[in-house]
Every structure is written in structure tokens, then in C-alpha cells.
Amino acid sequence: MTHTTPRSILALATACMLTAIAASSYAQAPRTPQVTDDAQATSPRAAPTPSSPQPFEDLDTNGDGAISKDEAAVDPPLAQAFGMLDTDADGRLTPEEYAVYAQGQS
Ligand SMILES: [Ca+2]
Ligand SMILES: [Ca+2]
User: What are the boundaries of the region Disordered (predicted)?
Assistant: First the structure.
């Protein structure tokens, strides 16, 4: 009669499971605050999202009277809408074409 099923093994197994569960939830815990800390720390400074459209003159950095795609790149929403705003598809935004965007922003 060497058949031994001590309860200590069951207890040990249960303890291992609990430890594993505790370890997994503990491993997840420190990540969440870090992410929110990063988001709070960086978003106010590193996100230069202009609430109002920039003046045409500011975007036309080379002063040729039109906003090229490169010049529009400083304003990501404008760069995204560039193709839609460039109604004559010449690759440049005239003041009239830009006005449509500026009005839509304000
Ligand atoms: Ca220009
Ligand atoms: Ca155009």
C-alpha cells in the first residue's frame, strides 16, 4: 500500500494555479498606467493640431501664390484633403481652392 494521494499535492497544484493567475494579472497591471502616462505626457506637447486653419500666406512658403503638395505637408489634414481641394488637379492649391478648406475648418 504505497498508494499516496496526499492532499498536499492538490493544495500545491491549487497554489501553483493561483500563483500563475496572480502573476499574469500582476504582469498586466504595470503596463496600463504607463500607457496612459505616456499619452498624457506627450499629447499636449507633441500633437501640433491647429484648431484653426493657417493663413494661406503661411502655407505658401515659397510665395509663388499657390500651395504645393510639399507646402501642404506641414498641415496633415490639409495634405490629406489636398487631392479633393485641388479641383483643377494641377497639383497646387490656389487661394480660392484653399479657401474651401479654410472655411470647412472653421
Ligand atoms: Ca507655393
Ligand atoms: Ca489647383
Answer: 27-77
Residue 22 Cα to ligand 2 middle (Å): 61
Angle at 32 between CA 21 and CA 47, to 5 degrees: 165
User: H/E element holding 37?
Assistant: helix 31-46
For the record, the C-alpha cell of 33 comes out as 498606467
Residue linked to cell 481652392:
97
Output the CA 52–ligand 2 centroid distance in Å: 22
Q: What is the mean pLDDT of the chain?
A: 80
Whether the pTM exceeds 0.90: the reply is no
- Nearest ligand to residue 88 Cα: 2
Sorted by sequence, the CB contacts under 8 Å of residue 106 that are 6+ apart come out as 52, 53
* 66's grid cell: 499657390
Collapsing DSSP to helix, strand or coil, 52 comes out as: coil
CA distance 15 to 27: 18
**So what's the pLDDT on residue 79?**
97
